[in-house]
Write a structure and sequence with these properties.
- The protein has about 290 residues and is α/β, with parallel strands linked by helices.
- The chain has two domains: about 5-75, SRP54, nucleotide-binding domain (Four Helix Bundle (Hemerythrin (Met), subunit A)), CATH 1.20.120.140; about 85-285, Rossmann fold (3-Layer(aba) Sandwich).
- The chain is about 50% helix and about 15% strand.
- The protein contains eleven helices and eight strands.
- The chain has helices spanning about 5-15, 20-30, 35-55, 60-75, 100-115, 130-140, 155-170, 185-200, 220-235, 250-260, 280-285; strands spanning about 85-90, 120-125, 145, 175-180, 205-215, 235-240, 265, 275.
- It has an eight-stranded mixed sheet with strand order 3-2-4-1-5-6-7-8, with helices on both faces.
- Helix 1 runs antiparallel to helix 2 and helix 5 runs parallel beside helix 6.
- It is elongated and about 65 Å long.
- The protein binds guanosine-5'-triphosphate and magnesium ion.
- Magnesium ion (MG) binds next to helix 5.
Length: about 290
């Protein structure tokens, strides 16, 4: 088992002095752990200044400051639903990150943990062969209504249908799947902007969140993906999947530090139950317990 970033940080802070080597080691650890050079530098410099300002002597005292710094990087995260109107979650992300699986997990979570009825899926990944059948199977298993058309049809039209029928039926949560791949990036961006316009134009006072799914294992690469999607449609929230498959985890700090986009959930496995709400305060406390 790889040592997690949290465990390594914890070990480092167990040492004695607060000399130059300590800060260098901390910066290296953070960069190796996917925090990214910019955020790592900012964190370490911020810590150095604060330690000096407060006249701290031990790493134990410095740890307290470091935790606060991390916490201040992480925007508040939850995605509460309004019960008196329709809530639309548009699920975005490149292929294979876990979009469709996460839709099933979200349906399960909101039904079980928050007692939400009236959940509907929009099968708007009409691009990949098999995508409609995949979400159909999940919907069937979860007993969720699904709005679909034929493969190759216009994703905007699928979402339009889903939105209008959900409003007419008084449903609470619409989860829209999208394709992670198009013929090229320009097409993908244009498609997403079209879908976004359809929802914005028909939401009628309901809530609308654009949620980007990122695979935690891809590290800094994920950050680049996030920038592209954020530029195209402005992302409201990120769900990090495959958290169970990485010992790094610094990507969470990079997302906070570089993009300032809140993380709402972590995917921690392949099962429908493997979705955990992300709580920044809890994360910062637990980070140094090795998660
Ligand atoms: N270990 C682990 N596997 C996950 C997690 N989330 C998704 N997966 C797996 O990742 C694979 C891809 O998941 P999908 O939900 O099909 O991904 P997608 O983004 O919809 O993919 P495309 O439709 O091809 O763009 C599947 O094998 C999932 O079981 C997670 O949190 N942990
Ligand atoms: Mg999919």
């Amino acid at each position: 088992m790889l040592k997690t970033l949290g465990l390594k940080i914890k070990e480092l802070f167990r040492g004695n002095n607060l000399g130059k080597e300590f800060y260098e080691e901390l910066e290296d650890l953070l960069i190796e752990g996917d925090v990214g050079a910019n955020t790592a530098f900012r964190l370490v410099e911020g810590l150095r200044e604060e330690v000096k300002k407060q006249g701290l002597r031990s790493r134990e005292e410095a740890l307290r400051v470091f935790k606060q710094q991390i916490l201040s990087l992480l925007p508040s995260a939850s995605l509460p639903l309004r019960r008196d109107t329709l809530n639309v979650f548009l699920i975005l992300g490149v292929n294979g990150v876990g979009k469709t699986t996460t839709i099933a997990k979200l349906a399960y979570y909101y039904r079980m943990a928050e007692g939400v009825k009236g959940i509907v899926f929009a099968a708007a990944d009409t691009f990949r062969a098999g995508a409609i059948a995949q979400i159909d199977t999940l919907a069937d298993r979860l007993q969720v209504r699904v709005v679909k058309q034929l493969p190759g049809s216009d994703p905007g039209a699928v979402i339009y249908d889903a939105l209008e029928s959900a409003k007419a039926r008084g449903e609470t949560l619409l989860l829209a799947d999208t394709a992670g791949r198009m013929h090229n990036r320009t097409n993908l961006v244009r498609e997403l902007q079209k879908i976004d316009k359809v929802i914005t134009g028909r939401i009628d006072g309901g809530t609308y969140h654009k949620i980007l799914i990122l695979d935690a294992v891809t590290g800094q690469n994920g950050l680049q993906q996030a920038r592209i999607f954020h530029e195209a449609v402005k992302i409201d929230s990120i769900i990090l999947t495959k958290w169970d498959g990485t010992a790094k985890g610094g990507i969470i700090l990079a997302i906070g530090g570089e993009l300032g986009i809140p993380i709402s959930f972590l995917g921690v496995g392949e099962k429908v139950t493997d979705l955990k709400p992300f709580d920044p305060a809890n994360f910062v406390e637990n980070l140094l317990e090795g998660l």
